[in-house]
Write a structure and sequence with these properties.
Mean pLDDT: 87
Helix content: 10-25%
Strand content: 35-45%
Largest sheet: 6 strands, mixed
Radius of gyration: 24 Å
CATH topology of the largest domain: Rossmann fold
Structural class: mainly beta
CATH architecture of the largest domain: 3-Layer(aba) Sandwich
CATH class of the largest domain: Alpha Beta
Strand order of the largest sheet: 2-1-3-7-9-13
């Protein structure tokens, strides 16, 4: 394949289904697949919790998608509860697998290879002797076995997460066994193996997944007139090892003031400085394009989405800006104390943390109509907050508090750090935190239990972030460490085995950073610089 993009990858995920358990861990599958398909060169479209009719309508449009006019291949991933012959949609209705597959026999997709993968149970059987089972995607209905026969199906590989009659296992931290294994194999070997060899390797990986209760899972794939070897990236280097093993070139921006916070996207790098200004740099040229004299004191936090920018400062103000050629001030909120943290979902909720005693939740009817919903009092310095649809997490001295996003009631307090927590991030069911006690900790937000403690920094940890495969932490010791998340969740591994790389280029404390698969952009305090680490994959 040599088209750009390679083709279209469509991800359907069904989390919230009437009378079914929420599919915890499925969002990890979504993120892993999105990153995999992006790395393979596909245009990615993701659909969440569609009802049956919307799913069918969306499938009807796949072959007519402009990407497929020139793209070489189609990949479709469907993840839900189910049984051997159907998956469940968000309205609780069954959607026959046969009906799904027939959508890919249209004339527009003729001659193009198609890979369709289903992550769902196909029955209810478990290994003999099991007395306690993990979460599954099964529904307790007697399986009805049918066999699809249609000679018009060509150029198609269909993969099922498990064999007929059996459940498919899913872990709330790592995602489903099948998708986790598929992503791991494709990430490591898509450079030099064809699709069918990759799927055989997936089978080997799944055979060796350890479980304390002895569970096993086998997947299967069917071939429909798929007669040629299909390579995703022939001759290209292995992917997904840039940060861990790749070499890097380093670029530097001199800011003239200590960097307290930053965020970047494909076009720009936005930084908040101790001198009260916000600098916006062109991400490609690194040229300074805009200087906003935003505040009269340190800019501790910021967040942007497209052309909207929010900033919080030591001067006790939160400001909202809109870019329209230049940055226009839309709104100013006066708070009681220094604004150390903010998080906005741009869907009606804004959360702010201020010095010493206030975690505030705001209603946002619009960017100019923002009213205080509730102040959640506590004791601590709110350097960091995060939230999703279910939980709000914040720092209370050396503890982490968990609140309900809906009721705004305190649910639990997670204890374990011995000094103040300086940074945290919430994603799916995990919270990762960094502390002045020099440790990184991983927490299960549902149980409130600390899962693992990682040590290796020689000073407090200012910033910590994680994705589906790794944790990155930045410290007052001037270093950035990259940790293997999967290895970290294995309690048998020591911290030095989990830390896979240490970066040492800053000459002072590293205050903040953001990262993706190929890049880390970090900001320091004393050295008043932004470093751009551009990683290349190893051969």
């Amino acid at each position: 394949m040599n088209s750009t993009p390679r083709g279209l990858a469509v991800i359907f995920n069904y989390d919230n289904i009437p009378d079914e358990e929420k599919r915890e861990g499925s969002q990890i599958d979504v993120e892993n697949l999105q990153e995999l398909c992006k790395q393979l060169g596909f245009k990615v479209e993701t659909y969440q919790d569609l009802n049956k009719q919307d799913t069918l309508d969306t499938l009807d449009l796949v072959g007519k998608n402009p990407v497929m006019l020139k793209g070489d291949m189609l990949m479709v991933f469907m993840m839900s509860h189910g049984d051997e012959n159907y998956i469940k949609c968000s309205d609780g209705l069954n959607l026959d697998i046969d009906k799904i597959l027939r959508k890919f026999t249209c004339i527009e997709l003729k001659g193009k290879p198609k890979f369709i993968a289903f992550q769902a149970c196909r029955g209810h059987e478990h290994d003999v002797g099991v007395t306690r089972i993990p979460q599954t995607d099964a529904k307790p209905i007697k399986p009805i076995r049918t066999q699809t026969k249609d000679p018009s199906w060509r150029d198609m590989v269909i993969a099922f997460s498990t064999v007929p009659g059996f459940v498919a296992y899913r872990d709330k931290f790592n995602g489903s066994w099948f998708i986790e294994s598929l992503v791991k194999v494709f990430m490591n070997s898509a450079c030099d193996k064809d699709l069918l060899l990759l799927l055989r390797d997936v089978s080997d990986v799944m055979d060796n997944i350890p479980h304390t209760l002895g569970f096993k899972q086998s997947f299967e794939f069917l071939i429909r007139s798929f007669k040629k070897a299909l390579y995703f990236n022939p001759g290209l280097p292995k992917i997904n090892n840039h940060l861990e093993k790749g070499s890097y070139n380093l670029q530097k921006i001199e800011t003239g003031s200590a960097v307290a916070c930053l965020q970047y996207d494909e076009k720009k790098i936005v930084t908040g400085l101790w001198n009260g200004s916000i600098h916006i740099y062109n991400k490609k040229t690194l040229k300074l394009e805009h200087v906003i004299k935003a505040h009269t004191d340190k800019v501790w936090c910021l967040q942007f989405d497209n052309n909207i920018l929010l900033s919080g400062s030591e001067d006790k103000h939160l400001k909202i800006w809109r870019f329209n050629g230049n940055y226009e001030l839309l709104n100013t909120l006066k708070l009681d104390n220094a604004v150390f943290s903010l998080k906005c979902n741009f869907k009606g909720i804004l959360v702010t943390g201020t010095w010493k005693d206030k975690l505030s939740v705001w209603r946002m009817k619009s960017l100019t109509d923002i009213t205080l919903n509730k102040v959640l009092h506590s004791v601590g310095i709110y350097h960091c907050i995060d939230f999703d649809e279910a939980h709000i997490v914040n720092v209370c001295n050396h503890d982490i508090q968990v609140w309900s996003t809906k009721s705004l009631e305190l649910q639990k307090t997670m204890t374990g750090h011995t000094y103040g927590v300086c940074s945290l991030q919430l994603k799916n069911n995990l919270v990762v935190s960094g502390s002045a006690d020099k440790s990184v900790r991983i927490w299960d937000i549902e149980t409130g239990q600390g899962l693992i403690k990682l040590e290796g920094h020689n000073h407090w940890i200012n910033c910590v972030r994680f994705d589906a495969t790794r944790i990155v932490s930045a410290s007052g010791d001037g270093t950035i460490k990259i940790w293997d998340l999967e290895a970290a969740l294995d309690t048998n591994n020591a911290s030095d085995a989990v830390c896979i790389r240490t970066l040492e280029e800053h000459t002072g404390s590293v205050n903040c950073f953001q990262f993706d698969e190929t890049q880390i952009i970090s900001g320091g305090s004393i050295d008043e610089t932004i470093l751009i680490w551009n990683f290349q994959a190893t051969q």
